[in-house]
Amino acid sequence: MRLGALLTPAGEKPDHLVNEAKSIEAEGFDSVWTAHAMGRGFMMHDPLVALAAAAAVTSRVELGTAILQLPIYHPTDVALKVATLMQIAGDRVRLGVGAGSTKWDYLVHGADFGQRFRDFDQKLAQLRQCFTDGTASAGHLALPQRALHGPPLFLGTWGRHVSRAASEFDGWIASGMHRTVDECEDALKAYRSAGGGRAIVSTILVTKDTDLGGLREKLEAFRDAGFDDAVVMMHAGAPPLSSVRRLI
Questions:
Q1: Number of domains present in the structure of the chain
Q2: Residue 201 has what pLDDT?
Q3: Residue 132: C-alpha distances to residues 82, 148, 156, 164, 242 (Å)
Q4: Domain range for residue 240?
Q5: CATH code, 117
């Protein structure tokens, strides 16, 4: 099982983000990810801007969003930002998208939380069109050849939508923040039964109170369940990245 890490919330030092990305790669992690949250009382980096900075100071790790709440964005803007990221990082980019589950992110943007699934479907179709032939509405984006077909697309979702991740996307991203290993394993079985490929369990919290032995057991349980990747989210005071990396 591959192991990744989410970039942590914005720090006061200007070099916080790039130093963290370099450290994640240097410690042998397989991937660097960004979360997407606003209006929570702290600042998370813009997912795509942060990955562009991480791309500039790394050369090996995959770079992905876990996840980008697509209904909040204009799909053409997403396509241009992702194409720019691919110009920097090449085929290391992975785009995780979803409708989100927290109204505060929508309130900050003046977006309709209640219509997020409808808006997700509409904007996903537009985003796919941008990457299919470079067109958006009546114009042409003139995407470079490298970015024309877009990066692998992952769906961050739960419940009955897991089968959609299997049939319409390159992979599935499950949240390990509020769900047990057993719940994630049951959802993974449904995903595999529907023919799903790569499965990632993200946002596995690591705090100052985390017992490394218990974390090892959790990561091994996700591995044994059949997940291809686990992505940890380090909080202030958590054990060092090197200690977490040695667990798997």
A1: 1
A2: 98
A3: 14, 7, 21, 20, 40
A4: 2-245
A5: 3.20.20.30
pLDDT at 99: 96
Give the pLDDT of residue 145.
79
Buried b (16+ CB within 10 A) or exposed e, 151-174: bbbbbbbbeebbbebbeebbbbbb
Which amino acid does the sequence have at 4? G
3-state secondary structure string across the chain: CEEEEECCCCCCCCCHHHHHHHHHHHCCCCEEEECCCCCCCCCCCCHHHHHHHHHHCCCCCEEEECCEEHHHCCHHHHHHHHHHHHHHHHHHEEEEEECCCCHHHHHHHCCCHHHHHHHHHHHHHHHHHHHHHCEECCEECCCCHHHCCCCCEEEECCHHHHHHHHHHCCEEEEECCCCCHHHHHHHHHHHHHCCCCEEEEEEEEECCCCCHHHHHHHHHHHHHHCCCEEEEEECCCCCCHHHHHCCC
Distance of CA 230 to the CA centre of its chain: 11
pLDDT reported for residue 146: 76
Segment 52-111, tens digit of pLDDT: 999 999 999 999 999 999 999 999 999 999 999 999 999 999 999 999 999 999 999 999
Query: 21-32, pLDDT tens digit by residue?
Result: 999 999 999 999
Cα separation, 31 vs 64, whole angstroms: 8
Q: Phi, psi at residue 9, to the nearest 5°?
A: -55, 155
* Count of CA atoms in the C-beta half-sphere (13 A) of 193: 9
Q: Which stretches in the chain have pLDDT values below 70?
A: 137-138
